[in-house]
């Protein structure tokens, strides 16, 4: 197999892992105001992702580093042309991470509420902007002959990209609600299931429209099949939630997000950054990739390191597989997200 194509697939795999795993993190953060009635509820919600949220974000670091090494031209064009949206994503992730660690440092309710708002917005902003960014990558942007972006930030806010942003926002929101239903007990579990039901209807509509638009304008037969599979698993997740099958609903939603991201990468192939103004200026796998020797060294490194990473992450989820309840919070000393994270590390 051509190593450029192989690494295009590996990078797609890393972004699938990031959107599936950090996606439910974002959803949990956005769901907090809707499923929490008091501070104990909010602490339960945060503790459901306490051991894993920072581990999930490492998928983004690995994806970005792999993109830089395997496709330096793609990396340079993407991070220069999309500088402002990606900077906003980075700042939102920083504020979100800081909030997880600092909300428990003082007992005042006003102090905690400020950081809770930062968690909500620090989850919603990346969830929306990632959809905008990837929709623009698939749609194509204005590039000159040197593969430099020649548009403005407002060109990125086109109808297709905004629809993509709302699609990822709703997919992650519903994904997080399924996860909360799976990881909590009592009233939070019931509220999460009800929230997932209400949000699920809108999510199905918006995601279906976005997938249909993607396939009709930019897709191929393989991307059509993947989009249909994503649409079906999304409905199946909704039905599973209605029947109280939280684990099945969460698994099907993870499959939906994975299939949707794979649909975008398949629609993009063999380009990595299409030029909407002139196809001759497009970045492709062939003209954006590193040298064969670089890709060969990276391939051997990935062959050794990737299975170890997957085993470690799987072990982490197994260790922290139990549900989080109010009794864990009320039954003694404040466990807080900080203690859970310490155990995880």
From TrEMBL:
It comes from the Bacteria. Belongs to the cytochrome ubiquinol oxidase subunit 2 family. The chain crosses the membrane at residues 6-24, 74-98, 119-140, 160-182, 194-215, 221-240, 247-269, 297-320. One of its GO terms (biological process) is aerobic electron transport chain. This is Cytochrome bd-I ubiquinol oxidase subunit 2 apoprotein. GO terms for molecular function: electron transfer activity; metal ion binding; oxidoreductase activity, acting on diphenols and related substances as donors, oxygen as acceptor. It is a multi-pass membrane protein. PANTHER family: CYTOCHROME BD-I UBIQUINOL OXIDASE SUBUNIT 2, CYTOCHROME BD2 SUBUNIT II. GO terms for cellular component: cytochrome complex; plasma membrane. Keywords: Cell membrane, Electron transport, Heme, Iron, Membrane, Metal-binding, Transmembrane, Transmembrane helix, Transport. It holds the Pfam family Cyt_bd_oxida_II. It is found in: Cell membrane. InterPro entries: Cyt-d_oxidase_su2 (IPR003317).
């Amino acid at each position: 197999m051509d190593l450029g194509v192989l690494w295009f697939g590996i990078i797609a795999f890393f972004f699938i892992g990031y959107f599936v795993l950090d996606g439910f993190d974002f959803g949990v953060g956005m769901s907090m105001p809707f499923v929490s009635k008091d501070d104990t509820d909010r602490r339960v919600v945060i503790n459901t992702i306490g051991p894993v949220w920072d581990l999930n974000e490492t998928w983004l670091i690995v994806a970005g580093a792999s993109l830089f090494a395997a496709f330096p031209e793609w990396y340079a064009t993407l991070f220069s042309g999309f500088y402002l949206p990606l900077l906003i994503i980075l700042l939102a992730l920083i504020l979100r991470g800081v909030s997880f660690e600092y909300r428990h440092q003082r007992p005042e309710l006003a102090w905690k509420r400020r950081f809770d708002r930062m968690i909500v917005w620090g989850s919603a902003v990346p969830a929306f902007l990632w959809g905008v960014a990837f929709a623009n990558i698939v749609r194509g942007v204005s590039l000159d002959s040197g593969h430099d972006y020649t548009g403005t930030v407002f060109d990125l806010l086109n109808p297709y990209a905004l629809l993509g942003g709302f699609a990822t926002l709703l997919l992650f929101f519903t994904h997080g609600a399924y996860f909360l239903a799976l990881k909590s007990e009592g009233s939070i579990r019931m509220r999460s299931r009800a929230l997932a039901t209400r949000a699920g209807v809108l999510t199905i509509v918006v995601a279906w429209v976005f997938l249909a638009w993607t396939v009709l304008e930019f897709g191929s037969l393989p991307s059509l099949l993947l989009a249909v599979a994503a649409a079906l698993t999304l409905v199946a997740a909704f039905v599973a939630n209605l029947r109280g099958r939280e684990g099945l609903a969460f698994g099907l939603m993870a499959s939906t997000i994975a299939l949707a991201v794979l649909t975008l990468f398949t629609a993009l192939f063999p380009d990595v950054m299409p030029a909407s103004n002139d196809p001759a200026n497009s970045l492709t796998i062939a003209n954006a990739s590193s040298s064969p020797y670089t890709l060969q060294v990276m391939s051997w490194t990935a062959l050794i390191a990737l299975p170890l990473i997957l085993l470690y992450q799987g072990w982490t989820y197994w260790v922290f597989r139990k549900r989080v309840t109010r009794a864990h919070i009320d039954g003694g000393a404040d466990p807080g997200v900080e203690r859970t994270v310490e155990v995880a590390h």
